[in-house]
Amino acid sequence: MKPHAVTIKDIAKELNISVATVSRALRDTYDVNQETRQQVLDKALEMNYKPNYNAIGLVTNSSHNIGIVLPAVVNYYFSTVISGIQEVAYKNGYNIVLYVTNDSAEREKDILYDISPGNIDGLLLCVSSDSDQSEHFTKIINMGIPIVFFDRVASHIDTSKVMQDDFNGAYAAVDHLIKSGYKKIAHITGPTGLLFTEKRMEGYLLALKEHSFPIKKEWIIHSGFTQNCGSADMIQLLKCKEKPDAVFAVNDRKAIGAMLTLKKKNIKIGKQIGIVGFTNDPMSEIISPTLTTVEEPAKEIGRKSCELLMKHISKKHFIAEEVILPTKLIIRESTQKI
What we know:
The protein is an alpha/beta fold.
């Protein structure tokens, strides 16, 4: 038999006070004195009281749900971001509703056009690769649903954003390749138009420029973010008249794809062609040789994004913040020339 769920009526009966007083005490309204409020909180804890958010939502016009819109859930980065979001959301009494775009701008638009204020109180959003960053974001904000972007952000939308330091992470990766003795460094990157890929490109270019190294258009390849894209990009680079001796990849999946291509062609990774990725996916330690990479603070990005969304939900006029979290270069075998 299902146990009886404790209600505010039960707490009121135990304390011999009105149901209205218990309700106001739990909501921390101004007209309940501190002593009474503490008694109610203590009794609620003692009786294992759990708020009925469906009932509360009818009164407060709040669903106690937040949405997460992201390109995928199967890779390490996004699953780690979700775990950080969950920690903060559950601590604040919110459930999460997950929407997956499969990295499609059309799917992203369809999801956002179907969302209404009655379903969710706020959105955490990582845009798709080919998103045109158009009115579907503005539509959501105009409906009164706050948005916080993370990782892949819509740069022109005035709301909070949380990112890793893509520019300095990329600069550190390429600077490491140069100091390791590589002189012809290529970049296999993502689609154009995404802020984080642009920042990683800027870091790559500045490192080359500061060391007076050549920048060749044929050594910069835009494509998708998958392992297969990395493999195809590496095949294209090997067809260049002047072949690069190192590759900086926009993420670890592309770096690993490039490494697998080099292995098939019996090209020694590190000694003949150095490889650096970006993410610090667990695969970077499993593949042989191990992959030098730039570690992204994925879980902290999730936590910080959700914390900012909580502030936007609770304060109508909360000023938007842009947070950039530091990255860390992790040196492994794929950049050892000797």
